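Suppose you are handed only these lines of text.
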Amino acid sequence: MAADGAARMNWVYAFGGGQADGNASMKDLLGGKGANLAEMSALGLPVPPGFTITTEACTHFYANERSYPPSLAEEVTQAMARLEQLIGKRFGDADNPLLVSVRSGARTSMPGMMDTVLNLGLNDRTVDGLAKLSGDRRFALDSYRRFIQMYSNVVLGLDHHMFEEILDDHKDRLAVTLDTALDADAWTAVVADYKQAVETERGAPFPQDPHEQLWGAIDAVFSSWMNERAKFYRRMHDIPEAWGTAVNVQSMVFGNMGETSATGVAFTRNPSTGEARLYGEFLVNAQGEDVVAGIRTPQALTKAGREEMGEKAASMEEAMPEVFGQFRGVVEQLERHYRDMQDIEFTVEQGALYMLQTRSGKRTAKAALKIAVEMAAEGVISQNEAVARIDPASLDQLLHPTIDPDAPREIIATGLPASPGAATGKAVFDSGEAERLGQAGEAVILVREETSPEDIHGMHAARGIVTARGGMTSHAAVVARGMGRPCVSGVGELLIDAKGRTFSARGRTIRAGDIITIDGSSGEILAGAVQMVEPELTGDFATLMGWADQVRRLRVRANAETALAARTARRFGAEGIGLVRTEHMFFDAERIAAVREMILADDEAGRGPPLARMLEMQRSDLVEIFGIMHGLPVTIRLLDPPLHEFLPHSREDVEAVAKATGLDAGKLMQRARDLAETNPMLGHRGCRLGVSYPEIYEMQVRAIIEAALAVTASGAPAPIVEIMHPLIAKGEEMRFLRILTDRVARHVMEEQGREVAYSVGAMVELPRAALCAGELAETAEFFSFGTNDLTQTTFGISRDDSARFLGAYMDKAIFEKDPFVSLDIDGVGELIRIAAERGRAVRPDIKLGICGEHGGDPASIAFCEEVGLDYVSCSPYRTPIARLAAAQAALARRT
Ligand code: ADP
Ligand code: MG
Ligand code: MG
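From them, the structure of the protein bound to magnesium ion can be written out as follows.
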């Protein structure tokens, strides 16, 4: 049954008078605003009646060259007729005019992205009717001028500044500052000038026909779905274009009818702290967006709020106690009903309260945690619901030092928010210098065109990293996230002069040594030192994470190769290390010399002495990491990058290295040239190194087993050692390396006369490995899916170069999401499924995990849960995100 007993229409849903065709569960069809207006109406709350044109009409509009479904016009006419009946006014009637608002409203709120028109139906005749009806000519004209401005801007596409200038001229002429100080005659003059300006600009008078106005506004709202702002917002928030917006046509109520009228916004709890207290602002004698427009300073809703802000102007609680009491009752009812914090818009017309909007309020991560935990404590929601409500990605805000939201920001340039957190330091342009200054205890920000593996030590020494090139998964971005360093990448507007040691943007130049701050969560580079706030891992955060841990099945590990990263991982709740990239242990300035010497040696005998030095470094690092991980599993991946990455390349670098190490410059240059590959990504790397230089892997296995034995000898719990061979493609490769591994391990244990358990596995990062997982599983006891490389090799796309064209792919909707950020379930995911299945067929208890960047991405984690992997491994700072996402994935499977 439709709201008033009439037949249900196809494209239009009515609400009002204590009934509604729709309800809150119909957001897809009615948009969030429309669905909640319907719900509030049905609850019997005071909602001005109206109707919603569905999102399906919008979809139809775009699928049919911007034309409407044939029956829409008739349905709107019927709905308007019913509205007129319910209100007792007529649209366009000169004596008793019905006025409406025409409001956009998508499934999820897109604040300020789309358009709304108020006071529609006013013209030169109805404005007189409104004046007589209300007995207030000033009010009628104030409404009319608002309408002309809004309609001209939204529907006719005229610049709103034009109207503001006209209004300012009038205010100057009358020597007043506030709009409220203008009387009816003044507004009459403003309206005349507005209309004149519209006619001049447009070459036609301001439309007087209310029906023309109505369809103009409906058209504008549907069209606003495709405006640039809305498109950009959708891309940022992963909102599909196909959703479309609904249009709400609603009878007007007036907050601008004098001192007993007002308009306001409220949150049932504080959206930035989560504190359980009504929070909000209102303005007397105002309409619509005046509260947020900042023309007049709004007043607090509550007395407590006013006192806290140290304000004098009366709060709504004090100024309008009666209607405030009613309002408080309604918002409490709404929060109970929706079982969540609500963001509410309301208007008071001559002492009568009207509810204009309610929705679950946006909130900071901190507030989200507090609200969820407190609502669970209040018994409003269950613990599992609390867990399900927190957006895992939002935890990022809490896990890094962040810029004080109240601190002033002087923006130098903006790039991609590549690794969250904020950092302040001196700008440096060279990794060597970053390291020198870093070791001297100085805070530095490394600014580079882009980074390569040779910059690791500089990146490590820096507090934050900026690159002019590269995307969200560039070398800089991935390494920075792994290290927990804030990073802003792809700052296209940055002009870096590395030699001159300056960078400039927007007409401003920063020199080496100048202090800058970067915000890796917003992508901003800021001038000077900006106030920070430290992460807090106790309180509500700890409570909620505890609840999450109770329900998740997936284990969560971290990728870590330093003691610091391992400690961070544990502090954030990691249950082991899923990936130790052993090469990272050699990039250190002093250590890399041994590696270079090893690479330069002519034969196996020559590699002996430098390998012995590398063994010691590797062993001592692992002893420390095993100690920190205290009996938890640690997956150590043997050397992976092509050897040339350890060598200097430019003539200058070669000479510097030769001088520092006493190696021969000519030989160094020659070797770098010999090792250079056309396609290093697909070249001599990964386990291929182990096959062609077995002594390297033998050294590493020895280091691992010796370290494990040393730890157990000290009485600490034995680490769960997992030795992983990278870039395996064939069962035969795996078998060869398994034999090598077992032989060395056995040998070390016999030497020491003691045993330690270990397992040997394959990093699955090539399509062949996934397809032939059965072959691998004959000798591999575990698989770890290296989804960064698996994505590269499946798509044949290099992630370092993809930034150049990925944008075009996203714009054209060929990729919905960057496959290096969120796992491509259909392709890469299918390979994982196949590998899991074929691996298990041969070895039912094979251990399965994922260690790519995707291990910290909630959507990818949900996939890992579905496939039944044993664990995910991500960068240490993302561990809590993964724990929460894993819990949500487990909860989602229960229902
Ligand atoms: P947004 O989505 O940008 O908030 P809205 O459609 O909610 O846009 O409308 C903007 C403003 O106009 C809000 O403050 C709302 O309260 C007010 N408004 C909308 N419709 C009406 C109405 N029928 N009567 C009075 N005020 C309204
Ligand atoms: Mg708005
Ligand atoms: Mg609104």
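What can we learn from it? DSSP finds 35 helices and 34 strands in the chain. The mean pLDDT is 92.
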